[in-house]
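Could someone model zinc ion with this protein?
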Amino acid sequence: MQTLTITTPDDWHLHFRDNEMLAETVPATARCFQRAIVMPNLVPPVVNADMAIAYKQRIEAARPQGSDFTPLMTLFLTNQTTAQDIVDAKQAGVTACKLYPAGATTNSDAAVKGIEALYPVFEAMQAEGLLLLIHGEVTEHHIDIFDREKVFIDKHLSLIVNAFPKLKVVFEHITTADAAAFVKEASDFVGATITPQHLLLNRNDLLVGGVRPHNYCLPVLKRNTHQQALRDVVATGHKRFFLGTDSAPHAKHKKENACGCAGCYSAWSAIELYAEVFEQLGAIDKLEGFASHNGADFYGLPRNTTTITLEKNQWQVPEQVTLADGTDMVPFYAGQPLQWKLKSAFNPR
Ligand code: NCD
Ligand code: ZN
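Reply:
Sure, complex below.
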């Protein structure tokens, strides 16, 4: 059987949630990822070093036996965040801070209104070497949801990267040709993550033939020309684009709802979903850079020393997973076939 061995990958953007949910989400990711950037949008959000350390310990306690999976922690920026919070975070080993424009997505009501007010905080991050991770969408009601990423680039992101040329900025879960072009043209201090859903799907997969709530995430899926631009950029192996699943679990009943939650739970098939994309693109040789090298290089962290092996062996993503407390969740790509399957992980070189 055809196999593919790559350096162990990392997930540079995901949501573990908290408490009982960690018993599900942490093993799912620790299955094949060595590290992950953990989003701080809990209720209440992770806004300081103490909260990040406590959350990190809860995640570590949920690792499978023998796993040395490493969560990389982030702070949730608010209008109350101070430069001292950044200094403390750096000292506590926090890796990055997440900027959510207020109301942009799940649990982001506490987030930032008036991004310019945070410039002193960005200054401190630049000085301390913390990365700025951005959910790049404006939230003004009169801006069409499909235009919100592009407007964010023009109104905010281009100003931030100009004002802080030595601040490492990750434009998270990009969804448009505009975002891909912006990052390509930016300096080496600007990178981007791309999710499996934005590479595999477009807005037809959300809306044609009925609303498909399990394909609903934010930023929302865009038209196929944007999907194509994202596929093109990863197929070229560009070094400042890397894997970030944005795996974001919600209970089935909260997604299949008159006001369904945004987020796709992709952790259990994450690396296989990306392998599917690169296989479709005829660029499977570019998977390793995207999944295992580019992110670590951008963050200034060592590449992982072990490998994982995938085999070409068609399988089907499960229709449903059930948590210990009985909560049902529908994984992303449920019931659909994938060509590559994880065979072994964390193999010595
Ligand atoms: C995320 C979540 O559920 O926490 N949802 C999503 O659609 N991606 C939040 C986020 O990353 O925007
Ligand atoms: Zn996210």
